[in-house]
Each structure stands twice: as C-alpha cells, then as structure tokens.
Structure to design on (247 residues):
C-alpha cells in the first residue's frame, strides 16, 4: 500500500510541474508587461476670455510626449519555463528508472495448498518421473547454449513447465504455469532449495528490470543439476514405496 501511495504522490507532483510549465509558456507568449506613466484626470479649469495672443511665425516647438516605461521580463519567464521543464523531465525519468521492488516468493512447501483445500482426499496422480526428467534435461541443454542470460533462464524454465505439463498432474484453474511447475517439483522428495533458487531466478529474469548476468545463468544451471540428481533419488524412493505397498 505504501508503494502505491508513494507512486501516486510522485505522479501528482510530476503532473503539477508539467501544468505549471504550460502556464508559464502561455504567459511568456503573451509578451512582456508594459507600464505607462500615471494618468490623472482633473476637472477642466474655467474658461477665461483673453485677448488672442500674437501669432508666432515659424515652426512651433514640439511639446513633450510622456515616455512609456518598459520592463522586459521575458528572459525571466523563459528561464522559469526551462527550469520547470527540466525538473518535470527529471522527475519522470526518475519514476521510469526506479528499480522494481524485490519479489517476495512464498515458501515452496506451501505451493500445493490450493489443491489440498479443494480436493483434500484426492491428491491426484503422482508425477511421471520420465516426463519431468525430460523437462530438466531440456532446461540443462538450454542453459548450456550460448544465449543472452535473461533469455536463457526464461527458456530453461519453460522447458521445466513443459515437462510438468506432460507429467500427468492436473493443473489447477487459478495456477500460472510457473506455479504449476513448482508444485510438480514439490510433489516429490526433491531438493526444495534448488527448486526455490531456480524459481527465484526465473521470476527475476521474467518480471524484474534488474540485470541478469552470466553468474545468474551459472546459478540456474547448478540448481537444475541439483534438481536432476535429487529427482532421480526421489523417484527411486517413490517407486520402492509403491512396490512395498503392493507387496
């Protein structure tokens, strides 16, 4: 809530600065203000009859004309407009370049809560190890290819999602593909920490503007390798448990 409120305040401030700049531009185009001398209107004096003054020959002397006092403030208006525009652009640039807030990832152990609340007794079929193994192999192949780091991590996670989709586990209507893949991984005795690391790397590469480097690709590759090893162990243990139950 605080982040949304701060964002609204910043946008309101930026819009106010831009509106002020527009007003200053309009005032600047009206021209500089002009100040004339004081104008005093006095009642006319009584007319007195006088003898006509003798006419003077030659050109009459020019009478003094009051000069208008002009104060040129156009430079000040232009400076204020430029300053307002610069401040507005700086605020907009800062809002656009502001780093996205860090993503808060829920614990991987609680990924399957939605399914257990809807079908408490029916947990659904167990994931097929072969399909999930193929998804992990596809992710490892993508991470080994020469790609841009962000694209490599996203494509690797898509490979894991494809394996989860073919695993036989039902995807819930409210689940995203990433949540579904994470839940499939959580259904087995796999390395939960490795799955959480891989999921965090994918979410940052997919939804954050933070830079993704080769070190992130190496971390994703290590997480996938850990998942491949732990998945094989977990699937073997699950097979032994099922065989024991049948016996």
């Amino acid at each position: 809530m605080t982040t949304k409120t701060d964002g609204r305040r910043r946008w309101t401030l930026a819009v106010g600065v831009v509106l002020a700049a527009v007003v200053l531009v309009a005032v600047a185009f009206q021209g500089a203000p002009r100040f004339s001398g004081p104008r005093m209107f006095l009642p006319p004096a009584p007319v007195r009859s006088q003898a006509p003054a003798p006419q003077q020959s030659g050109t009459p002397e020019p009478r003094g004309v009051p000069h208008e006092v002009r104060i040129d403030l156009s430079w000040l208006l232009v400076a204020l407009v430029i300053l307002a525009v610069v401040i507005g652009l700086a605020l907009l640039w800062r809002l656009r370049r502001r780093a996205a807030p860090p993503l808060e990832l829920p614990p991987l152990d609680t990924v399957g809560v939605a399914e257990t609340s809807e079908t408490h007794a029916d947990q659904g079929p167990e994931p097929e190890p072969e399909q999930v193994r193929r998804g992990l192999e596809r992710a490892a192949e993508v991470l080994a290819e020469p790609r841009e780091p962000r694209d490599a991590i996203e494509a690797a996670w898509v490979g894991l999602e494809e394996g989860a989709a073919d695993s036989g586990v039902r995807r819930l209507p409210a689940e995203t593909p990433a949540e579904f893949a994470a839940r499939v991984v959580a259904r087995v005795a796999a390395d939960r920490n490795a799955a959480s690391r891989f999921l965090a790397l994918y979410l940052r590469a997919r939804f954050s503007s933070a830079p993704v480097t080769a070190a992130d690709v190496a971390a994703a590759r290590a997480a996938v390798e850990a998942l491949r090893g732990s998945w094989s162990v977990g699937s073997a243990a699950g097979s032994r448990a099922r065989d024991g139950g049948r016996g």
User: Anything to note?
Assistant: Residues 100-122, 240-247 have pLDDT under 50 and may be disordered. Residues 108-246 form a domain with the Four Helix Bundle (Hemerythrin (Met), subunit A) fold (CATH 1.20.120). The CA atoms of residues 42 and 142 lie 96 Å apart.
